[in-house]
């Protein structure tokens, strides 16, 4: 297989979708699949699929297709899903609680260690056994627990301050839901999520639909 670092970001951005479909195949006890069948399932062209999966070494064989399990494992490895990560959520309102209540991330190795907030009504509560602490305890908590990922779910006015606190405390990755571009040191990784981007594309498609 190629060194993972040589795989283009465009290919990497498609991997979660491969991961999802391959998992579904495994759950259905399908152990091999052709690029053509995958293409019908996923809506990528067969040639796109062959090109993408070529990056990961010799899992495709003429007349056999792909070994679903090997491919799944390789993609998991590339996506870092064989590693466990500790996470914290900052901002324990609607969104923070919704993410905390979503147990599926844990299955893929993302462990929620704590939530934080400024609201005294929330501090001391638990979401699925995970405590909500005062934001003033963030630094100490991160010092004492190895935290890999900070998830920002505060209103946008506070997000930059939270990002500063997280990076100062040594967190190296931020999953940012606040609608603001955060400035962080070069070695800190940020992935932004904007549900509205996806919603607006839906709106575009709806408003341009043929009558
Ligand atoms: P919310 O008002 O229910 O929750 C925000 C929480 O942050 C509150 O509990 C508040 O006490 C807490 N908070 C405020 N300042 C804080 C600080 N300095 N430190 C720690 N906690 C603090 O709001 P909601 O609906 O949960 O939205 C949260 C954020 O997520 C907003 O910025 C919103 O725009 C964004 N959002 C983003 C979405 C996306 O797709 N990216 C979707 C929905 C919301």
Write the layout of secondary structure elements.
Blueprint: H1 9-27, E1 32-33, H2 35-42, H3 46-54, E2 60-61, E3 65-67, H4 68-78, E4 85-90, H5 94-101, H6 104-107, E5 110-117, E6 126-127, E7 130-134, H7 138-144, E8 149-152, H8 156-168, E9 173-176, E10 189-192, H9 195-207
The protein binds 1,4-dihydronicotinamide adenine dinucleotide.
Task: Write a brief caption for the model.
The protein is 44% helix and 19% strand.
In the CATH scheme, the class of the largest domain would be Alpha Beta
Low-confidence stretches: none
Quaternary structure state of the chains depicted: single chain
Which molecules other than protein and nucleic acid are bound?
A: 1,4-dihydronicotinamide adenine dinucleotide
**Termini distance?**
49 Å
Give the number of helices.
9
Structural class: alpha/beta
The total tally of domains equals 2
Rg, Cα atoms, Å:
20 Å
Cα shape: globular
The percentage helix is 40-55%
Q: Name the strands of the widest sheet in spatial order.
A: 6-7-5-4-8-9-10
The topology string of helices and strands comes to HEHHEEHEHHEEEHEHEEH
Write the CATH fold name of the largest domain: Rossmann fold
């Amino acid at each position: 297989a190629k060194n993972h670092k040589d795989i283009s970001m465009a290919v990497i951005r498609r991997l979660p979708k491969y991961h999802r479909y391959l998992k579904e195949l495994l759950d259905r006890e399908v152990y091999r699949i052709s690029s053509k069948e995958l293409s019908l399932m996923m809506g990528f062209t067969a040639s796109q699929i062959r090109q993408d999966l070529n990056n990961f070494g010799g899992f495709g064989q003429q007349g056999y297709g792909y070994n679903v399990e090997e491919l799944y494992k390789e993609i998991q490895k590339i996506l870092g899903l064989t590693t466990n990560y500790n996470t914290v959520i900052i901002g324990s309102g609607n969104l923070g609680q919704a993410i905390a209540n979503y147990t599926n991330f844990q299955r893929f190795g993302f462990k929620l260690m704590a939530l934080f907030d400024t609201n005294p009504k929330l501090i001391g509560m638990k979401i699925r056994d995970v405590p909500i602490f005062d934001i003033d305890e963030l630094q100490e908590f991160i010092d004492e627990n190895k935290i890999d990922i900070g998830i920002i779910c505060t209103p946008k006015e506070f997000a930059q301050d939270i990002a500063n606190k997280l990076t100062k405390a040594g967190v190296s990755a931020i999953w940012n839901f606040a609608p603001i571009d955060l400035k962080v040191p070069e070695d800190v990784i940020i992935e932004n999520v904007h549900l509205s981007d996806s919603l607006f594309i839906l709106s575009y498609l709806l408003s341009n639909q043929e009558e």
